Request: fold
Amino acid sequence: MADNFESVAIDRIIINGGKKLYGDVYIEGMKNAALPIIFATILTKSKCVIENLPSVSDVILSLRILKDMGASVKYIDDTTVEIDTENFEYGTAPYDLVSKMRASTYLLGAEIGRFQKAKVGWPGGCDFGVRPIDLHIKGFEALGAKVSIESGYINALAENGLIGNQIYFDVASVGATVNVMLASVLAEGLTVIENAAREPHIVDLANFFNTCGANITGAGTSVIKIRGVKKLHGCTYTIIPDMIEAGTFMVAAAAAGGKVTIKNIIPKHMETVSTKLAEMGVDIEEYDDAITVISDQKMNGVTIKTLPYPGFPTDMHPQFSAALCFADGISVVSEGIWENRFKYTDELRKMGANIMVEGKTATITGGFKMTGARVKAVDLRGGAAVIIAALAAEGTSEITGIEIIERGYHDIVNKLAALGADIHKDRVAVSPLNIV
Ligand code: EPZ
Reply:
């Protein structure tokens, strides 16, 4: 007898593991640099051409928010977009759009900077436990805005305009650093951010702004100085390569074995990842804008502790945990940024992984047999982790939740298939009762 639940279509990634990877893979522009720069165009009130923009759903969503609010957004080719924010209007972006991603907090900084007021719905994004925005609020308040939270919206108003100030962050937050840069670039006087985030995407945002006529110094160090300017102009700007996408392919090659050259990257940004893979016994060859990973799948366990840049990136920890399931010996992975970034380990356990999580530390005993299973992407990098495990495991894996993976990886299935992986996407109709 038919059940009362109508079947729904779900997309899956199917991987038959055990194929080595060979060839070249080209890396897209960096999602986490593209997102702040897209919102930064609001402050230019003019036409910007952004090149090397990754075609991932978070970027498309951000462009949609700008378009919905009056900006003109035109794709020139697959990775180049022209954004004209002259007619961008003050307003409240649709809640269902902003609640889908974390980067929608950048609309706050951009609106405050341009209109001295903002109203934005509570942001979404990957669930790593508590994700406060107290530092963003502290930054806006230091510049003269009053901030309140009501009915799921964050409201800010700077009645007397924004005036530069000295702001100290207890935690080096990427998002809060971006937001203060957005809010202060047109403010009166000098803003100094102390204990600023030092990530390459912060430097990219400063470079974008300076190309538009801003006066920002110190990006890439822990003290950023923003001297407000009266006006910005448009520019053409190329986004830096995505070090996390690059790192994900490097770890995939290490775990699955083979020889893969990761192209269109900045090797300096990859140092922590390259060093850790070398420590695991994987051969790494570095070139001007490429890295080759050569792996015979013999890896040894290592210790990893994630830290703000230039420390080991938290956004690479799940992928490494997946690879370490195939390494000899015991590995310890400690998360230094997020409260709870280990949900993906449940999925790896379904494949046979021996992982113990206590607090913010995972202990992985490598060498247990890993076999394909029905698993899901619980968050963006956790999704990349199950793909890596499935590539190296024996047998077939079915991965659901792939829309989460597509938030940050463009065409990952075809890119891996081109390297020789037995991987494809399909769509099946299932009863809601059978969704894992
Ligand atoms: C950015 O998130 C990235 N997202 C994340 O990448 C990344 O994991 C994270 O930086 C750390 O590198 C984007 O760039 C869109 P934070 P963000 O503010 O800005 C605490 C991915 O996979 N904190 O630097 O939200 C916070 O709890 C994503 O691409 C406060 O205490 O991170 C955390 O412990 C996932 N108060 C630490 O700071 C605040 O007001 C760092 O967070 C804000 C943050």
Q: What stands out?
A: The chain has two domains: 8-27+241-434, 31-238. The domain at 31-238 is CATH 3.65.10.10 (UDP-n-acetylglucosamine1-carboxyvinyl-transferase; Chain). The pocket of EPZ is lined by residues 32, 35, 102-103, 126, 131-136, 171, 173-176, 197, 314-315, 337-338, 380-381, 408 (CB under 6 Å). The chain is about 30% helix and 25% strand.
